[in-house]
Design goal:
Elements: H1 11-16, H2 32-35, H3 39-52, H4 62-69, E1 74-76, H5 85-89, H6 98-126, H7 131-159, H8 166-169, E2 173-176, E3 189-191, H9 192-209, H10 218-221, H11 232-245, H12 249-260, E4 273-275, E5 278-279, H13 280-286, E6 293-296, H14 310-313, E7 324-326, H15 328-331, H16 340-344, E8 345-349, E9 355-359, H17 366-369, E10 380-383, H18 384-397, H19 401-413, H20 429-440, H21 447-454, E11 458-460, H22 468-471, E12 473-475, H23 488-492
Antiparallel strand pairs: 1-7, 2-3, 4-5, 6-10, 8-9, 11-12
Family: Belongs to the SusD family.
Domain SusD-like N-terminal: 22-214
Subcellular location: Cell outer membrane
Amino acid sequence: MIKKIQLYAVLAAMALSFTSCLDKYPDNAIEADKAVNTPDDVNQLVMGIYAAFKDGALYSGNLTLLPDIQTDLVYGVTGNTNVYGDIWRWNDIKPTNTDIEDVYAALYTVVNRCNFLLDHVEAVRAKTTDDDDLDRLDQYCGEAYFARALAYSELVKLFCKAYESEEDAANQLGVVINEHYDNQEPMKRATLQESYQFIIDDLDRAEDLLQLEEDFNPSVDGSLYDTVYFNEYTVYALRARVALYMKNWKEAEEYAGKVIDSDYYMLSSCNRQISSGVSYYKYMWTNDHSTEAIWKISFTVSSYGGALGRVFFNFDQSNVRPDYVPAQWVLGLYAASDLRYTDIFQSYTTAYGLMWPLLQKYFGNEEFQAYNIYHVCMPKVFRLSEQYLIRAEARAQQGNYGGASEDITELHSARYSAGGAVSLNAETAMDVIEEERVKELYMEGFRLHDLKRWHKGFERTPQDQSLDNGSSLKVAADDPMFVWPIPQHEIEAPGSQIEPNESNK
C-alpha cells in the first residue's frame, strides 16, 4: 500500500534520508508530538521534503527519463543492457513494473512528508510567540503545500487520462488524495476534476504563503534564478503548467506571463559565452548554473540522486556503451543555425562500433566528474524556456498568433546564431510549437504527456543498430498505455478501493 513516512528520533537524519521510500519507525522512535516542538524541528521536516525529491526514481531518474524513453525520442541499440526495456518496448509495460512502482512510491513519499508536517505544524504554531518564528512557520507550510501540489501534478500526469473539460474530468479517474498523515483516509481514487482542484487549492495556499516581500531586491536579497528553494515564482511556473494541462489557456498565459515578465529570470544564451568555448546555455548543463532555472534540485558530491545520463553513455573512463541513442528524426529538427544542437548532442564512436550523436547535456556536472562521478547533474524542474513554450501554446490556442510568434522568436533569439524569427498562423502554429517542445525539452520528461494531451500517436522505424524488438512500432492516438498502470500492489493492498486503469488489464 501507499507507504507513509515516520519521524526518527534524530530529525536531521530524516532530512538527509532520500534513498528509501519505506522510512519505517524504528522501535526506539520518539512520538511525533514529543519530537516536533519548535520551528527548527519543522524546518528539519521541510529539509526532509526537499531531500525526498533527490530520489533516483524522480527527477534525476525514472520520472524524467521513462516518459520520453517510452515514446519516439530515443532508440534502444544493440548492446543495450535492457534497462527500461519494458518501457521502451511499450507493449510490455505491466502493473508490476518496478520502475513505475518506484515513481509512484517516491511521489507518495513526498506527499506523506508534506502531510506529516502540515498535520503537526499547528501544535508548534500554538506555542510560538516570536513573530519571526511565526513567519518561518508560514514559509515552511507554503513549501509543503507547493511540494504536495508538485507531487500530485506528476501523479495525475502519469496515471490519469488527459484533462479535456470540467464535465469530462468529473467522470474520469484521478489519483488517491491523502490530505492528512495521521488519520485513516480511504484508499480510493478521486475524480480527475477533484484531483486537479486539490492541486490548485494547494497552489493557492502556497502562493499566499510564499509571497516575496514588497521591497524584495535581488541585488540585496539574492537572485531568484538558480534557486534550490520554492518561492512565489515556482508556484506561478507550476500553475502555468497545470493550467496548460487543463486547457485553461487564459490562466496558462497569465501565470507563464507572471514568470516571464518578472524579469527575475533570463534565457541562458547560446550566443554569449561564460568562458572560452562555453556558452551560458551549455554551462547550464555542464555546471548546473543558469539564469533561466526557476527551481533546481540541489546535489553535492556527497549527497546526490540518480544519474540522468547513464543510459545515454555508460562511460567507464575509456568507452561509451549507450543503452539509448537519439532518434534520427529528432536530430533532423534542428536548423543549422540552432546552437542547441552542438551543446545537447555530440558524436561518439560507441564500444559497439556505432558512430552516433549522443545526448551530451546529461554527461554530468564537471565538478562531480573531478570525483569520478559521471552522468550526474542537478535536475532543472522548472526553466524559463518552458514558460515561453506554455505561453506560446496558450496564446495560439486563443488565436493570438502574433503573441505566440513573439514567444517562439524570443526563445530562438537565445538559441540561434542568426535568424530564428517566426510568424505563426492558424495552420502552422501548433506544428511549430510541438516541434519546439521536442527540441527545447528533449529528454526532460514531457513527451508522453504531450502526445497524450494532443491526442497523437507515433511511429518508430528502425535506424542504425537499433534493437529489433521495439524499433518497429506504431502506436495509435489514445492508446491505453499513454496512461501508466496503477501498481498492482496498490490495487491488491488490504482495504484498497483503488480502481485500475485500462493499461492494468
